[in-house]
Write a structure and sequence with these properties.
3 domains, Arc Repressor Mutant, subunit A, Nuclear Transport Factor 2, Chain: A, two-stranded antiparallel ribbon, alpha+beta, 10 helices, 25% strand
């Protein structure tokens, strides 16, 4: 597979939101590295991780600029964007990937990305790109917080940004901006913070018979055990089993 064909096929897999198709671009011992979250996924784990990610991801991905070629390596920049209700494109993040090839397949892909910061005018009253006022931003933040804390919407494993926008009664593009600018995280991380906190509460509860960790993962809204372990360790610095073991014993 030529470098250009590899990149085109790789973007096609991401835009199809097909985890298995993405993984087909890796050699059996290939590793995907999400540099921003400091997570590494071998090929088999990548399918599980991306399956969970794609259940919450509605973005489109495209190449920006040229593909740079080296000896057994390529590098390229990309952007992810969502479509507003009027069909306009709104940037979600920009990134760059550095790929080490073994034959026609990737042995290592390092993914660097950042989410664009919302633009605020000098009076701090309006988000410039969308016209989302600060009062409306606060209203949607309050609605989100109510849904998460009072109704525990995050425990729905099928919760996506469009589904959440319906619950909040907020346009999808505005809701994405509310989460990014209002809470300083991506939609994916926003959900996971609530899910992991719920999991910690369950794992710390010693009044009932301990649940299997896989049961806890599904109960709090994750679609896979590996995605749960990865998010838990990133947010807590330890595995779920270690966290439960470290809880003080009740007498």
């Amino acid at each position: 597979m030529r470098e250009k064909d590899f990149v085109n096929s790789y973007f096609e897999a991401w835009n199809d939101h097909d985890a298995s198709y993405v993984a087909e671009h890796f050699a059996p011992e290939g590793i995907y590295v999400d540099v921003s979250s400091q997570e590494q996924s071998p090929k088999q784990e990548l399918v599980t991780y991306l399956s969970d990610f794609f259940s919450n991801d509605q973005n489109h991905y495209e190449l920006t600029g040229q593909v740079t070629k080296g000896t057994d390596s390529i590098a390229f920049q990309y952007r992810a964007f969502s479509l507003t209700g009027t069909g306009e494109e709104e940037d979600v993040l920009h990134g760059a990937e550095f790929v080490t090839l073994h034959g026609d397949l990737a042995i290592h892909i390092a993914d660097y990305y950042r989410e664009p910061m919302a633009l605020v005018d000098s009076s701090n009253q309006k988000y410039a790109k969308s016209g989302l006022s600060e009062d409306l931003l606060k209203h949607y933040k309050d609605q989100l917080t109510h849904l998460m804390i009072e109704e525990k919407a995050y425990m729905n494993p099928s919760l996506t940004l469009p589904v959440l926008s319906t619950l909040v009664k907020c346009p999808v593009n505005h809701l994405s901006q509310v989460i990014n600018a209002g809470f300083g995280v991506s939609f994916f991380d926003y959900l996971n913070e609530y899910r992991i906190q719920e999991a910690k509460n369950i794992l710390a509860d010693q009044t009932n018979q301990p649940q299997a960790i896989l049961t806890v993962a599904f109960e709090v809204g994750f679609n896979s055990n590996s995605a749960f372990y990865s998010a838990f360790k990133r947010l807590c610095g330890k595995t779920p089993a270690q966290f439960r073991k470290d809880q003080p014993k009740k007498v």
